[in-house]
Amino acid sequence: MVWSKTGNYHDVEAFLKSYGSLAPKRYHYSDVKTITNSFKVKLGQGGYGCVYRGKLRDGNPVAVKVLNKSEGKGEEFINEVASISRTSHVNVVTLLGFVFEGHKRALIYEFMPNGSLEKFVYEGSSLKDCQLGWEKLSQIAIGIARGLEYLHRGCNTRILHLDIKPHNILLDEDFCPKISDFGLAKLCPRKESVVSMLNARGTVGYIAPEVFCRNFGGVSHKSDVYSYGMMVLEMVGGRNKIKPEVDHTSEMYFPDWIYNHLESGELGVHNGITSEAENETARKMVIVSLWCIQIVPSSRPSITRVVEMLEGSLQSLQIPPKPVLSSPPQSREDSSTIEISNMAIL
């Protein structure tokens, strides 16, 4: 079944019914009020709406995302339900239920007590304060890669996430990473390597070049690999090199800076590395991420190869060619996800 932005309430209902037993449990909006204790504890807020902490009748804690009424006719809501209902993996967040009553829409997820990876990456956070060492960062990077590998290869229908970034990676009580927010996901048959897209989708700074300019190639699972690489670079270097006045993403995300320090052997000096083991872990993460952000999609490794590289030895890795980043101009709004028009789920 195809969903397009021209759909209305009845189209969404038909889409949900077509999933039958595959769809997660459907709740009433009144249930959400009970689950969240009348929206008492807010966990976060964004352009999509608000997230509240809640508790199911069996006592299990949950996170409830209540979507804004301005979310349009339901394309992102449908994307979320359609894609995540097909998944079951330790590194992909579990959608436990949803609400669809006219303009009232909500998504109920398993609760992730450590929040998003974002707060452990950006300026103002430190490895010491967050109790994350280099080994834990490496485990998180591998977990995310395994989650992507499952989406790309482990499902009957290949799922391209198309919005991989720290904000969309949630951490459980043991800091096990789980990929979340499938609002921009694209479903395609496993045999197809390239998907059709009418407009760019994703978050500036993480979008692969081919997503916003077809001259670089077709949009595929390699586009997720690029976003993953940019995210891992942030995990290694933090985001404290960003200057608000900088106009282009290629300057903001400093891969040139990291590449130069990798070659000179000075990477550890600027990242609080105190042992040879930490230095090897950081160098491995940097080398792998630099392979992931190669401009030409065919030059990037598959996510399966990424897992192998991260779990293998540093000595087996070659330093890739220096990537030349190319991204859309930076604006004050581009820290959030780009809105998409005329898209369809296949």
Q: Keyphrases for this structure?
A:
346 residues, alpha+beta, Phosphorylase Kinase, domain 1, Transferase(Phosphotransferase), domain 1, six-stranded mixed sheet, 12 helices, 34% helix, globular
Topology at a glance:
Layout: H1 9-19, E1 25-27, H2 29-35, E2 42-46, E3 49-55, E4 61-67, H3 75-84, E5 95-101, E6 104-110, H4 118-121, H5 127-130, H6 134-154, E7 157-160, E8 169-171, E9 177-179, E10 186-189, E11 194-195, E12 202-203, H7 209-212, E13 219-220, H8 221-237, H9 249-252, H10 255-264, H11 276-292, H12 303-311, E14 337-338
Parallel strand pairs: 1-5
Antiparallel strand pairs: 2-3, 3-4, 4-6, 5-6, 7-10, 8-9, 11-13, 12-14
Helix pairs in contact: 6-8, 6-11, 6-12, 8-11, 10-11
What do you see in this structure?
- Keywords: ATP-binding, Glycoprotein, Kinase, Membrane, Nucleotide-binding, Serine/threonine-protein kinase, Signal, Transferase, Transmembrane, Transmembrane helix.
- This is Protein kinase domain-containing protein.
- It is found in: Membrane.
- The chain starts with 8 loop residues before the first helix and ends in an 8-residue tail after the last strand.
- Helix 6 runs antiparallel to helix 8 (221-237), helix 6 runs parallel beside helix 11 and helix 8 runs antiparallel to helix 11 (276-292).
- The chain is of the alpha+beta class.
- It folds into two domains: 9-110, Phosphorylase Kinase, domain 1 (2-Layer Sandwich), CATH 3.30.200.20; 118-338, Transferase(Phosphotransferase), domain 1 (Orthogonal Bundle), CATH 1.10.510.
- It has helices at residues 9-19, 29-35, 75-84, 118-121, 127-130, 134-154, 209-212, 221-237, 249-252, 255-264, 276-292, 303-311; strands at 25-27, 42-46, 49-55, 61-67, 95-101, 104-110, 157-160, 169-171, 177-179, 186-189, 194-195, 202-203, 219-220, 337-338.
- The chain contains twelve helices and 14 strands.
- The protein is globular, with a radius of gyration of 20 Å.
- It has a six-stranded mixed sheet.
